[in-house]
Amino acid sequence: MKQRTRGWVGGVMIAVLLAACQTPQPGQRTRWPPVDETPQPPTPEPDERETPDRTPRPLGPGTKAPVELEPDASLQQWPTSAEEASGPAVVALLKQAREARAAGRPDVAAAHLERATRFESRNGFIWAELAAVYIDKGDYDQAEAIALRANSLARGNPYIEARDEQLQMAEAGESALADDATLIVEAGTGTGKTFAYLAPALASGKRVLISTGTKALQDQLFRRDLPQLLSGAGVPLQIALLKGRANYLCLYRMDRARSLPAVQGNRALQQAVMAVGVFARHSDDGDLAPLEAQMERHPLLRPHITSTAENCLGSECPVFNDCHVAKARRKAIAAQMVVVNHHVLFSDYVIRQDGFGQLLGSVDAVIIDEAHQLPALAAQFFGIRVSSRQWRELARDSREAAREAGDVPGIEQQAEALEQAPAALDEVFEQLAAQRRSLVQFLALPGAPQALEAVRGQVMALFEALRPLEERNADFAALTARALDQLERLQQILDEPEGEQVRWVEPAERGGSLYATPLSVSEGFRQMVAAYPGAWILTSATLTAGLRFDHFVSQMGLESARTLALGSPFDYAAQARLWIPRDLPQPNDPQHSVQVAQLAASLSGVTEGGVLVLCTSHRALRDISD
Questions:
Q1: Which strands sit side by side in the sheet containing 208-212, from one edge to the other?
Q2: What is the mean predicted confidence (pLDDT) over 50-75?
Q3: Hey, which bits of 377-511 come out as E strands?
Q4: pTM for this predicted structure
Q5: Is the bond preceding residue 409 a cis peptide, omega within 30 degrees?
Q6: Fewest C-beta atoms under 10 Å: which of 134, 407, 428, 600?
C-alpha cells in the first residue's frame, strides 16, 4: 500500500461528504429553501457531441491547485446530487459507473466517471465518486488529488460546508490512528467533530470502538452518520450498536414478571407487561427504545423486564441462547466498528478486571466523544457504591425466588425483613435535605449508625440463609453472590480507606447511596489505556482551561498524549443571542411545559421559524409539542 500524504484524509473526507450527500436520508429535504414545484416546460436535451467541457482533469499526485468558483446568488440554483447537475448522457455514465463499482470493477467505474468529468468538470459530486473509486483501487495519491478538486468545488457550494477546523482534526486523527498514539482534541461547537473522527477511522481499516456520552448521540452515530459516510465512501463495513443492559428486554425476567403478585395485583402494570410480551414477539434485537414513553408512564415496568449486573444469571440463564444482551455483545465483538456509551466502556473494563470483559480487547482503537464526562464517570466506576435500592432489590428478588421454589419459607421471611430494614435509614437520608455529605457527617446524625448496622445485619442474615441453597439453581447461586458482594462493598466503605479516597453519601428520592471514591482517577485511567495498547482519541468542545489541556491531562493521567485545540467556526457575537427567562416555574410544575411552549411559539414568530426545542423527558416533549 502506498504511503498516504499528510492531507489524504482531509481531502478524501470532503469527497466522502459530497458523495454521501447524494442520497437524502428518510424525511430529509434535498433543497432549502424549497423550490417552486410548478411544472415547467421540458428543457431540450443537450446534444452530447456539443456539450463536453474540455477543462483538463487534475490527474497525478502533483496536481492540487484548487479551482475557485464564484458562489451563485440563489441557493435554488445549486444541485444537491450529481444527477441534478447533469444531463442525460452524464446520468447514464454515472449509472454505469455505480454498477461497475458494485460489481467489483473499479477500473471500469473510473473510466465511466472520468468521461463524466469531461462533460461536467465543475460537478463536485462526480469528482467525489471518482475519488472514492480510486480509494477502492488503492491509489491514495490520485484519490487525494481528485478529492482536493472536489474540495475546491465544495467551497463554492452552500450545501457543503468545508471547515478548516474539521479537516485539521481529521488529519490529526489519521496520524494518531496510524501511530497508535493518544490524541486529545478540543473542537468548538460547529466544527463537525463526528465526521472528523469517523472519516479517518473508516479509512484506517482498524477495528474501532466509539464511545459517546448519551444514548441520543449513540443512535445518531449508528443510524444516521455512519450509514451516510459508509454509503458515500462505498465501504462495506460491519458496524454494531451496543447499549447498557437496562436498554434491552430480558426475556427471563419478563416471563417471571407475569406471575409475580406485585404485577398481578397492579392492573395497569399487568397490562404494561402484557404489551411488552407483544413487543417481544416482533423485536429482533430487544432494544426498548420504542417503549420509552410507556416505561415513563409506568416507572415500575423497567425493573421487571430488564436485568442488572447484579441479578443477571449469565450463561446459567434458561433462555441465555436468546438473550438480547448476549446477542448484542456478540455482534459488537464481531463488528469492524462498534458504537457504545461511556457506561458500557467503563463497565467492560471493570468486568474485564474480573476476567469477563471482551469488548475492549477486540478493537485496535478507541474514540471517546464528549470526553469531558470522563473524570466524573471514571470516579464512579473506579470507586465503590452501595444503596438502599440495591438492598430492596436483593430482598425482592430473594422473596420471588423463594415463592417460586415453594419449600424455603425461611428465605422469604429473611427477604421480607431485609426489605423493611432500610426504612429507618431512609429517615436519616431525609435529614440531608437532598444535599451530599461526607460519611463522617452522615454517621454523626441521630440514629444513622444504628440504622446502618441494622441493614448490614439483615443482609448478613439473608446471606447465611441463602448459602445452603447456592447449588440448588442459578437463581439462588446469583442471589448468594449478590448478598456477599453487598456485604463486602459496605464493609469497604465503612473501613478506613487504603490510599486517597473520599467517603460520602447522597440522598435519593427514596433512601440513598454510600460511596468510596478515589480522589484521583489518573492512575486508574492510565492503567485502562495501557491495558489496551492502540490509538485512543478523546474529543469534546470543552476540555481546556485557559486554553491549556494541563488540568484534563493531569486528571486522566495522559501526560504523554498529543493535544490539539480548535476554535469554533461560528461567530457567536454576530450569530447568537442568549436569553434566560426569569419567571418560568420549576420543571416539575405542570405549567412549566405550557409556558415553554408559549415562549417557543413567540420566538418562532420573531425568527420566522427555525426553532429547535430540546427537552429532558418524553413527558415534556409530548406536552410542549401538543
A1: 239-241, 337-341, 208-212, 365-368, 535-540, 182-187, 562-566
A2: 34
A3: 384-387, 437-438, 501-507
A4: 0.74
A5: no
A6: 407
